[in-house]
Amino acid sequence: MNAGHFLAIFISSIFVSNVILSRFLGLCSFIAISKETRPALAMSSAVLFVIVMSSAITWVVYNYLLIPFDLAYLRTISFILVIASCVQLVEMVIRKFMPALYRVFGIYLPLITVNCAVLGVAVLNTDMFFSRGKPLPGSFIFSVFQGVCVGIGYTLAMLLMSAIRERLEYSRVPEAVREFPIAFVTASLMSLSFMGFNGFRF
Amino acid sequence: MENKLIVTAAPHLHAHQSTARIMWSVSLALLPAGAAGVYLFGYAALAVIVTAVAAALATEWLLQKMTRRQVTLLDGSAFLTGLLLAYNLPSGVPLWMPAVGSFFAIAVGKQIFGGLGQNIFNPALAARAFLMASWPAYMTSFRAPGFDAVASATPLSALKEGHLRQVYSYLDLFLGNKGGCIGEVCVAGLLAGAVFLFLKGYITWHIPVSYLLTAGIFHYVFGPSGLFSGDWLFYLFSGGLVLGAFYMATDYVTSPLTAKGQLIYGTGCGLLTVVIRLWGGYPEGTCYAILMMNAVSPFIDRYTRGRIYGTGKMR
Amino acid sequence: MKLLPEFLKGIIKQNPIFVLALGLCPVLAVSTSVKNALGMGAAATFVLVGSNCIVSLIKKGVPDTIRIPCFIIVIATFVTIAELVMKAYSPALNRALGIYVPLIVVNCVVLGRAEAFASRRTLPASLADALGMGIGFTLGLALISAVRELLGSGQLLGYTLLPGFQPALMMALPPGALLVIGGMLGFFNLLKGRKE
What we know:
Largest sheet of chain B: 2 strands, antiparallel
Shape of chain B: globular
Shape of chain A: globular
Largest interface: A-C, 43 and 42 residues
Mean pLDDT of chain B: 85
Radius of gyration of chain B: 20 Å
CATH class of chain B: Mainly Alpha
Distance between the termini of chain B: 38 Å
Oligomer: heterotrimer
Order of helices and strands of chain A: HHHHHHHEEHH
Number of domains of chain B: 1
Mean pLDDT of chain A: 86
Largest sheet of chain A: 2 strands, antiparallel
Helix content of chain B: 55-70%
Radius of gyration of chain A: 18 Å
Strand order of the largest sheet of chain A: 1-2
Number of strands of chain B: 2
Number of helices of chain B: 15
Number of domains of chain A: 1
CATH architecture of chain B: Orthogonal Bundle
Structural class of chain A: mainly alpha
Helix content of chain A: over 70%
């Protein structure tokens, strides 16, 4: 466990295997909500928060509950329950203590439950940082850190895409490709440019 | 009385310089570099250039006819895109590659976004990245200058693989006596064209200077043998950096509007180029750096908007 | 009550991928080969049918405020069954599909049909809907995979169709996937526009 590992996770999660542009997780929300910058930023920050929280809790559940009792096959069900509860908790807390923020987030909060990126990272963590049922050294820290980086990568893709799409509003895009198709073509070119970070080694 | 007060926002494009004039001027400025490329690499290079340009023109004509829009081949932008794409290719590629690449550049890089002025990414670079991702073997097979088609590495790729056996003099690098893409090797020709464009006022100093300065500084600082030991001149003259900094990053459509934005953009390009060159898997990062900054450009524009006179504090 | 329209709509008119634009995460990730696509389609259809039926049966007994979490638990159960069956009988497919098998839980198609259709309609209708949507999803997925596999490797289901064709590797990579789906969505929009 050294700085190199953290840097590798950082570069990999944000650029080389960007959660949206490379792993295709969180695509639904990406295409739907990246039309304007403000909702994009709101959704991204909420997602980042939930990802970090659920990365931590799912790791604990996996390591101290599922593995000892030989229930690893219940991973999917238990993880999604944890995520749904996290989202519910976040929603309740924000509604109680920061009502203005709650109004900004609006319907985005409950949507995070079905955001592929959240469950995806939780599952990725258990695949990457566990070996034959045992956590690798530094597993918890790496899992949470990967969650943070994935959230940052998600935010980066969302912010860039929303600025681009706001600009595309002024373009004479052909009728047939307006809205979704051009968004995908743009994402394709963004993904192509991110390929520049392939094979990154510090 | 004549109204001497003309208040406009940047960029200050003079009205009598039409798009077509600018496009064709840039193509003209690229001639020396292309001529050098053909001289160095032979008829194969010429064939690539001609194919790329022809395919670009054909694609644009076809798409504009199909979508019943006005055919604008004479504005020189398709010609320029084809030319720039050819300059970014090794001389030995099979001729279907520049053809497919030009098609991609015009169709996916430009027309699908609505045509001239609407695209987000530099079409020629998008096509180059597409060709690189699709047929990497062809895109990394370079020839040495001369009439025999002898395989060669480029200075950057040799450096990355750790066997820089051939010693390149700065003059070699400057004039183009090295392996590389058709239009990127002759730095002298590129600079000559760039001076022409400066004098005409078609490009400003902001992007090229910030790009090259940032790249040079970072190459110097993060030298291969310890800090502050980098051979920055070698790196500046190698790869597609000069071609990118003066001709591709300066594209009006895909770079920010304001001077401040352009400086940020140029710095970003420089930084990303060096990062990829030093620590990424590819030997050269210019193409990807510019494409990534293209994606960031709308974001930069959004947050460096010029002040609108008469209104209060900027949001 | 006609069941056939409920079944058929999922295949073309309301195709989950090209018309409703749902469940795209696994579509892009898994569409590198037709074989994988069919495997994923089968798994998704199984989950869809199972969850639609159960949701339709329990819809009266579920309190409205917690219906989404309840649906998710039902779906997660079927996904776990699919996961275990796949691990046991086709581990190669399971490895190929990777994390996208458990991700069927949050596949918008499955939850979307449960919420929008099965929670309001009868069991036979929900079954028809699930089958139609599942087949439509699989067909769409297979179509995209066919394009990507053909262009990206010159092969289809492992058979080399175009000898001498230099495959465009990008098609097998993420940018290629995004480009193909963008192109196909645009193409289908064009067809829709022509019809009207």
